[in-house]
Specification:
Blueprint lengths: L2 H4 L19 E4 L5 E6 L5 E8 L13 H8 L3 E2 L2 E2 H10 L3 E6 L4 E8 L3 H13 L5 H18 L3 H13 L13 H5 L3 H11 L5 E7 L3 H12 L23 E5 L4 E9 L8 H13 L5 H8 L4 E10 L4 E10 L3 H18 L3 H17 L4 H13 L6 H10 L3 H11 L6 E6 L8 E2 L5
Parallel strand pairs: 2-8, 9-13, 9-14
Antiparallel strand pairs: 1-2, 3-7, 3-8, 4-5, 6-7, 10-12, 10-13, 11-12
Helix pairs in contact: 2-5, 2-8, 4-9, 10-13, 10-16, 11-12, 12-16
């Protein structure tokens, strides 16, 4: 099953710690033409694989919304001549894991194993991708689990806020539909739908691969062909949709819920990673709300006024949308003042941008903190996969610092004025806030 259905939000533990400084990436191409990025690490007998097919929930038909999630949740429920219990038991015996993670644009997968069991575990992955069983009892059980997860998320304020934000800001786009699907669409997904997905959406021309750990290029090449070589060479991608931006700019939507704390989700359009000003925008986000030091929003909302338990912003980039998100949690009685201050700070930052000190602090943080996440074979493999799925070069580790360092104060003020836009900041509030006058009260069931 996908990781989010096993324990929502719980990341699987890293297999081995390693220093971040010694990351040397090599492009490896198998005899069959399958390419992977490899970081050799022979310090421990551990191998981590991260991979992705360029297909995801955004390609699911509207009446089959949730199909990508359903496939991800059933691929490890038996494959080849192994039923679900036998497949999972074999992985447990091999002290290894194979997981699948659906997204809007990519279908990702992860393998963690120890090198003595490498060939057996990679063969189990091959079976899951090419010969999944989709046995009726497993499919029925997973369908029930997904349906329960949908019901649970409908009651959870953070998930509910996200669902409504996406649905109202991308009403005519696939991004506006939840990856999990709805109870109705999930009920209509058949075993034939699951089989067709695997047969028509997994192909070598859609594949990105990152491997980190105890193996050499010569050992990896035949392993790539054996594991992925029997997949179709190519599939026809659907016509790419037009790039999209949030349409509900400036509005505040309220979902009434009798809870003591209001969840406030806010966001606006961002910049694509390929944009020439993206790294300036990345620095701006760090100053406004995305850093761990005292950001503008944290100082104004939490430190100075004590209004929110937490507040922060972040950037999200998809194939056809770029966003800047923020979230805060506060007592219902303080929600109106919190929203007002967020809007004020958004407008003040758009008008003046950061100070010179804020800019320098943000750049120092971004340059230093990036390496801190590279502490395991798994985290490095996931980072390399991110590079590939977002069009970043293989030497990005070396280039990133220079891209951030060259951001000037003039750049920051220019981009803040051009991109940060309080008039387009869309809010969704879940709770029972006092003094908040919404543009619309939303029934989440509609």
């Amino acid at each position: 099953m996908s990781r989010r259905l096993v324990i929502l939000g719980l990341a699987l533990g890293a297999l081995v710690a390693r220093p971040a400084a010694a990351v040397t990436i090599e492009k490896v191409v198998s005899p069959g033409g399958i390419e992977a990025w490899l970081v050799e690490d022979h310090g421990q007998k551990v191998i981590s694989l991260s991979y992705a097919f360029h297909t995801g929930a955004a390609e699911d038909a509207a009446d089959k919304n949730g199909l990508t999630e359903f496939v991800a949740s059933t691929l490890d429920e038996g494959a080849g001549d192994l039923d679900s219990e036998a497949y999972q038991g074999k992985l447990e015996d091999l002290s290894s894991s194979i997981t699948f993670e659906p997204g809007q644009d990519y279908f990702e997968g992860y393998v963690r194993t120890v090198s003595p069991h490498r060939d057996e575990v990679f063969d189990l992955l091959r079976l899951a991708l090419t010969q999944p069983r989709f046995d009726a009892p497993a499919v029925a059980r997973v369908r029930d689990e997904i349906t329960k997860a949908i019901a649970a998320r409908a009651e959870e304020p953070n998930a509910l806020a996200g669902k409504i934000w996406w649905r109202t800001n991308f009403p005519n786009e696939a991004y506006g539909r939840p990856v999990l699907g709805t109870a109705k669409t999930v009920d209509g997904i058949t075993v034939d739908d699951l089989k067709s997905y695997v047969q028509t959406r997994f192909a070598r021309n859609q594949l990105k691969l990152a491997v980190v750990g105890d193996l050499t290029p010569d050992e990896l090449k035949p392993l790539l062909d054996k594991t992925f070589g029997t997949l179709p060479a190519s599939v026809t991608e659907p016509a790419a949709p037009a790039d999209a931006a949030p349409v509900d700019g400036g509005k505040l939507l309220l979902i009434k819920k009798p809870v003591p704390q209001s969840i406030i989700l806010f966001g606006q359009a961002g910049l694509p990673i390929a944009d020439k000003d993206y790294y300036t925008f990345l620095v701006l986000n760090n100053v406004l709300g995305g850093g761990t030091f005292s950001t503008r929003l944290e100082h104004a909302v939490r430190e100075e006024k004590g209004l929110a338990y937490s507040i922060g912003t972040g950037l999200s980039n998809y194939d056809h949308a770029a966003l800047m998100f923020g979230q805060a949690g506060t007592q219902n009685a303080k929600a109106a003042e919190t929203i007002a201050i967020i809007r004020e700070e958004w407008a003040r930052f758009a008008a003046g941008g950061p100070t010179d000190k804020e800019l320098k602090d943000a750049k120092t943080y971004l340059e230093g903190a990036y390496a801190l996440g590279l502490d395991s074979t798994l985290s490095i493999a996931e980072r390399l996969l991110f590079f590939q799925t977002h069009g970043l070069p293989i030497d990005y580790f070396d280039k990133r610092k220079g891209l951030i360092e060259k951001v000037t104060l003039a750049d920051a003020k220019r981009v803040a004025k051009a991109v940060i836009d309080p008039a387009k900041l869309a809010f969704v509030v879940v709770g029972d806030p006092a003094g908040v006058t919404p543009d619309q009260v939303v029934d989440p069931a509609d």
